[in-house]
């Protein structure tokens, strides 16, 4: 396995060199996608062997050494660096760019629980920055990877010294990237709603985008600031118009189970954090596993000791008045 792994890393490096220098034959995105899928599959099969809870351990720096010791000693960091390099030369890929982009995002998410502290802190921004070079068809995927697979395991990570981790500090930059390169306001809303559930002071990050972002990013940030925090200025604009626009564009995140009876049409309502269950029922998808209610019930019947948690649904409406009934 070790030899095969380093061989394939050589091929990733070779792709990079040929794209960088434009040397023939220029690699096709489809070939590169297949190589990356090989790595994702390898990572998932390694993860499936682990009996402890790497997804739980990844949430705290304290367990990093213990977590890294769960896996065979392979070049995870080199793989991460190779992916980073490939993002730099994406603009030279002409055939199969979408397939490559999909495989790249999937591989990054699969790699997350194998990374050490410094790299974990970078994954959110690296993923967000891929939006500047990947085609528009992948923008929804990028936002989904961030919201469902990366942000919940990175920005809330506890550091050894109790300070805010670097991933959390990079959130203003993550918002800026998505707001600048996605022209779909539904993506902006999805990202902010995910962040609001994970990070208490996210309003400061939005203010930072309003202050320092590029023109399109700051315009969207200002709009959403008043949308989600109406107390800043309740009369500034017609909130209903914004609501209708956003609601129409929201693409539901669907059940990820391979043999879902609703075949990719049912919205995910539950999440299972057990990586072994996840890799068993969604063989090519990084954990955790997001499921429709029907699949969650079915898997729960077969595995009654597994926990399935509710996932957050998009906000239908933001109240203009304080809804905290306890304080009145
Ligand atoms: Zn399902
Ligand atoms: Zn109140």
From TrEMBL:
The record's listing under Pfam families reads:
UNC-79
Q: Which InterPro entries match?
A: UNC79 (IPR024855)
| Superkingdom as given in the UniProt entry | Eukaryota
What is the name attached to this protein's record? Protein unc-79 homolog
Organism expressing this protein natively: Frieseomelitta varia
């Amino acid at each position: 396995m070790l030899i095969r792994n380093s061989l394939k890393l050589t091929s990733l490096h070779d792709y990079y060199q040929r794209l960088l220098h434009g040397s023939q034959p220029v690699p096709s995105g489809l070939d590169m996608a297949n190589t990356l899928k090989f790595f994702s599959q390898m990572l998932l099969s390694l993860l499936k062997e682990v009996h402890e809870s790497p997804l739980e351990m990844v949430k705290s720096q304290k367990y990093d050494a213990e977590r890294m010791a769960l896996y065979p000693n392979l070049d995870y960091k080199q793989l991460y660096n190779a992916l980073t390099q490939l993002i730099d030369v994406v603009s030279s890929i002409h055939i199969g760019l979408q397939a490559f982009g999909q495989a790249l995002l999937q591989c990054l998410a699969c790699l997350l629980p194998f990374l050490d502290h410094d790299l974990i802190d970078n994954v959110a921004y690296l993923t967000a920055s891929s939006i500047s070079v990947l085609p528009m068809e992948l923008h929804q995927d990028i936002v989904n990877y961030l919201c469902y697979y990366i942000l919940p395991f990175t920005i809330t990570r506890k550091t050894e010294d109790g300070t805010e981790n670097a991933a959390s500090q990079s959130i203003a930059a993550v918002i800026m990237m998505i707001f600048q390169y996605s022209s779909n306001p539904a993506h902006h809303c999805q990202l902010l709603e995910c962040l609001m559930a994970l990070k208490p002071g996210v309003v400061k990050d939005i203010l930072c985008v309003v202050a320092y972002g590029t023109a399109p990013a700051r315009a969207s940030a200002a709009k959403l600031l008043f949308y989600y925090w109406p107390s800043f200025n309740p009369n500034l604009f017609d909130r209903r118009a914004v609501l209708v626009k956003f609601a129409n564009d929201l693409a539901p995140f669907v059940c990820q189970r391979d043999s879902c009876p609703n075949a990719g049409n049912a919205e995910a309502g539950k999440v299972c954090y057990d990586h072994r269950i996840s890799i068993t029922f969604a063989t090519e998808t990084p954990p955790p596993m997001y499921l429709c209610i029907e699949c969650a019930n079915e898997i729960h019947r077969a595995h009654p000791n597994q926990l399935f948690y509710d996932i957050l649904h998009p906000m239908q409406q933001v109240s203009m008045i304080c809804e905290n009934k306890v304080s009145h």
